[in-house]
Every structure is written in C-alpha cells, then in structure tokens.
Write a structure and sequence with these properties.
Elements (H helix, E strand, L loop, with lengths): L4 E10 L10 E6 L2 E4 L9 E3 L8 E13 L9 E4 L5 E4 L8 E2 L1 E3 L8 E7 L4 E2 L2
Parallel strand pairs: 1-3
Antiparallel strand pairs: 1-5, 2-3, 2-4, 4-5, 5-10, 6-7, 6-9, 8-11, 9-10
Length: about 130
C-alpha cells in the first residue's frame, strides 16, 4: 500500500489541465507555472498532489515520502525519475546521463499502480 508522510509541498499554477495527473511528475513551464513532464530527460520540480484545471492552484510535493504513479515496473529500492508521461520510471545510475533521478522507491508497483518513493526534487541529479 502506498503511503505519504513528512511531505514538503509548494503551490504553483497549473499551466494546463492537470485534473487527470495526480501523483505524476511536473516541470516548470514559466515562472511559478507547471505542466506535466513530457520527456524522460525533463527535470521534475515535484510530484502533483491534487487535480487542478488549467490556471488553478497546483499542490506540488518537493520532498518527503510521496505517492507516485508507476509508468512501468518499479521495485522497492529502485532509483526513480520521470518517463515521457510524467509517471515514475526506474533509473539505473550511469545508464543514461541525460535523465534525472528524484528519489528512491520505498515500495514497488506495476505499471498504473501507485508506489511510495522518498523524493527530493530541490536538487534533482542526473542518473550518472
């Protein structure tokens, strides 16, 4: 079961309709405005916690034990970052230095399931 605790969140503006993107990774698109991550090489600013429409307040988790929607199989202990749909993808350090790691999975999940990951997006680092 996925859980959340000790989350640090910020509020930004949704730059698009994100009502179907809860627990996916988002990136900055303009000052204080976010959109869904759309490329595996995007640097996520955080994980969307609510379901805002375009122009509405978006609650974005930037650190803590956070729920993430899996885009593929993620095992407990895997490093995680975004895929091209904003969902969690397992990252292998050193395999692709263009992709960012934002945390580590505390639980596993199959594609479409929710997992728990310890995240820190204040300083995402490359998977090198």
């Amino acid at each position: 079961m996925a859980t959340q605790e000790s989350l640090t969140c910020i509020t930004l503006e949704a730059g698009a309709d994100l009502s179907g993107d809860q627990y996916k990774m988002v990136k900055l698109s303009a000052a204080k405005t976010i959109v869904l991550c759309s490329n595996a090489t995007d640097a996520p600013v955080g994980v969307l916690q609510n379901k805002p429409g375009s122009g509405e307040a978006a609650t974005v988790a930037i650190s803590g034990a956070c729920k993430l929607l899996a885009g593929g199989t993620v095992n407990a202990g895997d490093f995680v970052g975004t895929d091209a749909s904003g969902t969690a993808d397992a990252k292998t350090p050193g395999s692709d230095t263009t992709e960012y790691v934002i945390g580590r999975a505390l639980t596993g999940a199959a594609s479409g399931e929710v997992l728990t990951a310890l995240i820190n997006t204040e300083a995402p680092h490359r998977a090198s």
